[in-house]
Structure to design on (94 residues):
């Protein structure tokens, strides 16, 4: 994903500058060729661990928004896989 897309995304206009910078770094370090749900999950896990180390906490709404933004560049079939995986994860949290 092009980090500029994050800056121009109206859904992210209310996110803090620190979190936006964190997301831009994530976008820069995420390979477009590695756009499978498994790779996306791995990237998000690593990013989450890094955010925790830096004392950054994302709300559930922010996390959902991040997933939506990252899914935008996936092909429809891969996007459906991510959505299924997210539904399964939400079911496990209950």
């Amino acid at each position: 994903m092009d980090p500029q897309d994050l800056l121009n995304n109206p859904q992210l206009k209310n996110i803090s500058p620190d979190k936006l910078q964190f997301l831009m770094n994530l976008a820069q370090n995420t390979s477009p060729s590695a756009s499978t749900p498994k790779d996306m999950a791995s990237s998000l896990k690593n990013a989450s661990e890094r955010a925790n180390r830096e004392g950054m906490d994302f709300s559930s709404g922010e996390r959902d928004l991040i997933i939506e933004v990252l899914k935008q560049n996936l092909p429809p079939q891969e996007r459906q896989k991510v959505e299924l995986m997210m539904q399964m994860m939400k079911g496990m949290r209950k």
Notes: The mean pLDDT is 76. The CA atoms of residues 2 and 8 lie 10 Å apart. Helices lie at 3-8, 17-29, 37-53, 60-71, 76-93. The radius of gyration is 13 Å.
